[in-house]
């Protein structure tokens, strides 16, 4: 499949099997932790089905005027992808060839200079230009975890990113995911700070595994306390409760 513009021809071709991907380390320890936390709550809520692709630091590919361009967002979500043949490992993702355009891409800012806001069209293009003008990703989120600042942009009718305003709960509805995205402050494992979290339409926050375990523990404790109070009341009137 190909799309031609005045100065740019875009084609969607699979990454060659012998292509050597850059093995650059992530910029800081926060990036993989934040990405994993976003995925974990979706998994626990059973919201990642067979044809959904959720990935971090995986290359998204497009070929621009015959040259392969790859950007690896810190996190992205695609709702409908073609399954891979048995035992094949997904090394990259080419939209329009292997499945739909991602519903959202996210970048987590670090202290070092980066090109999350780069609208540079010359090869290799900046991230902003790539997501907006090449992929046409509906939502682009940029998160600065140190201060907990979240910017969400949505593609408008002219195929340009327009900054979105949050709702009264300071969250953003992401249509392609079917959830609200927002910032939460707290501790998970060894990290205390700001996190990106998901909320459903009713305002219920999707939980991490440790939070789910704690909720279940509290529910068992409440049931136990109620049982003990009932037993005490029965004994007070001379009835021995059955164990």
- The residue fraction in helices comes out at 10-25%
The number of distinct β-strands equals: 14
Query: What would you report as the Rg, rounded to the nearest angstrom?
Result: 23 Å
* Tally of contiguous helical segments: 3
Overall tally of domains: 2
Largest sheet composition = 6 strands, mixed
> CATH class of the largest domain, please?
Alpha Beta
Oligomeric state of the chains present here: single chain
Mean model confidence by pLDDT: 90
Q: Any idea what the CATH architecture of the largest domain is? A: Alpha-Beta Complex
Gross morphology:
elongated
Would you tell me which CATH topology of the largest domain applies? tt1808, chain A
**What is the element string, with H for helices and E for strands?**
EEHEEEEEEHEEEEEEH
Structural class: alpha+beta
Outline the structure in words.
- It is a single chain.
- The strands form three sheets. Strands 3-6-8-9-10-11 form a six-stranded mixed β-sheet. Strands 1, 2, 4, 5 and 7 form a five-stranded mixed β-sheet that branches.
- The chain is built from three helices and 14 strands.
- It has helices spanning 30-44, 127-135, 209-236, and strands spanning 2-4, 9-11, 53-55, 59-64, 67-71, 75-78, 92-93, 104-108, 139-144, 149-155, 161-163, 171-174, 179-188, 191-199.
- The chain folds into two domains: 2-206, tt1808, chain A; 208-243, no CATH class.
Give a topology summary.
Elements: E1 2-4, E2 9-11, H1 30-44, E3 53-55, E4 59-64, E5 67-71, E6 75-78, E7 92-93, E8 104-108, H2 127-135, E9 139-144, E10 149-155, E11 161-163, E12 171-174, E13 179-188, E14 191-199, H3 209-236
Parallel strand pairs: 4-7, 8-9
Antiparallel strand pairs: 1-2, 2-4, 3-6, 4-5, 6-8, 9-10, 10-11, 12-13, 13-14
């Amino acid at each position: 499949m190909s799309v031609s513009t005045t100065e740019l021809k875009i084609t969607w071709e699979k990454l060659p099997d012998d292509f050597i991907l850059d093995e650059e380390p992530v910029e800081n320890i926060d990036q993989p932790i934040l990405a994993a936390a976003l995925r974990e709550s979706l998994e626990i809520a059973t919201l990642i089905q067979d044809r959904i692709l959720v990935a971090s630091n995986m290359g998204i590919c497009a070929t621009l005027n015959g040259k392969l361009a790859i950007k690896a967002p810190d996190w992205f979500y695609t709702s409908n992808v073609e399954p891979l043949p048995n035992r094949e490992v997904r090394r990259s993702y080419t939209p329009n060839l292997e499945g739909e355009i991602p519903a959202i891409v996210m970048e987590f800012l670090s202290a070092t200079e980066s090109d999350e806001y780069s609208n540079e069209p010359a090869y290799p293009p900046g991230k902003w230009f790539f997501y907006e003008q090449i992929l046409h990703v509906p939502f682009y989120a940029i998160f600065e975890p140190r201060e907990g600042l979240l910017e969400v942009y949505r593609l408008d009718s002219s195929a340009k990113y327009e900054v979105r305003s949050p709702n009264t709960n300071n969250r953003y509805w992401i249509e392609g995911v079917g959830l609200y995205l927002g910032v939460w402050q707290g501790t998970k494992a060894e990290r205390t700070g700001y996190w990106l979290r998901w909320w459903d339409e009713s305002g219920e926050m999707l939980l991490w595994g440790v939070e789910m375990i704690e909720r279940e523990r509290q529910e068992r404790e409440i049931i136990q306390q109620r049982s003990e109070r009932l037993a005490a009341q029965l004994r007070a009137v001379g009835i021995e409760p059955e164990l």
